[in-house]
């Protein structure tokens, strides 16, 4: 069983109107860790979600959505704080631009004393990421959870950098440095890598994180594919998959969910196991993630693929 932890919000997609005095919004539940939980459930994996969730109208919808998708919500902490909202505008290529409303919101307010005293024994892997690992008090709480569980469970981390929420890039760099000594799997986008570490090669970054303790580094490169580096020195890359892009919302989250599902299915959900993946296995893993992400890009919003769309094709 997996446990995905962190941000839970509503993405509000804006549509053009005839008047500048009006705006049309199409709201959909989202947030990177929430999307990953949904993605794992749709791929037939047992998964729970841990966050601090609002009792407002958005939070009620988030909770109902998780339950509808078969995600375990028993660890969620309720609060009267408002839900986080993200206003999303798409450009002509389907790439998303976000404006977040996050001040004092539910998912950012998780405190250290609200962590579960212990996790259910069935949980084999914990995923954390996104702005809830860079804003306080949620960052302290989630990083503490990952550190506490590292010796007992597989830890996965994707910073999913959002400068519009935390503009100080050193905060993101410091968090990655901390998590590179905690996470077994570190995944980030090439866009985030270039933003945080300009002019540094992916190979150099990966080797630095592996030296610190990461067992598998994956860098997604959008339409150009993805590359992986294992703790035992193997690497592999795959090209992107051509698809008619509706938008790219949730593509990285889909890749992450597919990666975790692949690792579990191939009995590689452990630090030693992922470090020992050879180039052929890494290529198979990346191909599976790329196929999953391509499906999401072909649909509106973070509409992640189901098992029947992937497992019988891989």
Describe the fold and architecture.
With 314 residues, this protein is of the alpha/beta class. It has one domain (2-313): UDP-N-acetylmuramoyl-L-alanine:D-glutamate ligase. The protein contains nine helices and 14 strands. The chain has helices at residues 32-42, 57-68, 138-149, 169-179, 190-196, 202-212, 251-265, 271-275, 279-297; strands at residues 2-6, 9-15, 24-30, 47-50, 52-54, 77-79, 84-90, 96-101, 125-129, 154-158, 185-189, 216-220, 226-230, 235-238. The protein has an eight-stranded mixed β-sheet with strand order 4-1-9-10-11-12-13-14, with helices on both faces. Strand 7 (84-90) and strand 8 (96-101) form a beta hairpin. Helix 1 (32-42) packs across helix 7 and helix 7 (251-265) crosses helix 9 (279-297). It is globular and about 55 Å long. 48% of the residues are buried. The model has no long low-confidence stretch (mean pLDDT 94).
Characteristic key phrases:
alpha/beta, eight-stranded mixed beta sheet, UDP-N-acetylmuramoyl-L-alanine:D-glutamate ligase, four-stranded mixed beta sheet, 314 residues, 23% strand, 9 helices
General shape: globular
Helix content: 25-40%
As laid out across the biggest beta sheet, the strand order is: 4-1-9-10-11-12-13-14
Task: State the helix count.
Answer: 9
CATH fourth-tier homologous superfamily: Ribokinase
Write the layout of secondary structure elements.
Blueprint: E1 2-6, E2 9-15, E3 24-30, H1 32-42, E4 47-50, E5 52-54, H2 57-68, E6 77-79, E7 84-90, E8 96-101, E9 125-129, H3 138-149, E10 154-158, H4 169-179, E11 185-189, H5 190-196, H6 202-212, E12 216-220, E13 226-230, E14 235-238, H7 251-265, H8 271-275, H9 279-297
Parallel strand pairs: 1-4, 1-9, 2-7, 5-6, 9-10, 10-11, 11-12
Antiparallel strand pairs: 2-3, 7-8, 12-13, 13-14
